[in-house]
Design brief:
Layout lengths: L7 H17 L3 H12 L12 H22 L29 H14 L4 H4 L2 H19 L2 H5 L3
Amino acid sequence: MSAYVVAPSMINEIISTLSVMQEQGTSHAANMAGSILNEAGFPLPSLAGSESSRHEVLGRAMYKLNKLSVAGRYPDSKELPGSIDSKGRLLPWKAAYFYPVSPVQLLKSIQCWLYQTCETKECEEHPVYLAFDKIKNYLALELVTNTPEYNAAKW
């Protein structure tokens, strides 16, 4: 099986990292992510305030969309592939703040989530999916344009 339900920890890392990067104000891509997600109706949580409900809403939407996509890929399967607990059940969604990951890991995690969530047209057209597809591009561009090789290249 190639499609699977991603671990809730990956979704939490994505949300936590984008929130931290946006609050630090050091990443144009993270600022764009905040704007894109806000426009899609899923604003990033603020770490300073008590906006855990924003984390919950965005994370739950990402998790449900991923599960819907995997179920679309394996419609006859009783159990969806993914991270499981000691009883063999999919790990449930639970919002939690995680220590931020590197920008490269953030990009790879978003790409993984997108790949695991593209099995149906309904999923690919969902506002959260479309938002993260745009965010991925901003992150990739920011990573490349901050390399010495890029900065040394001719204009």
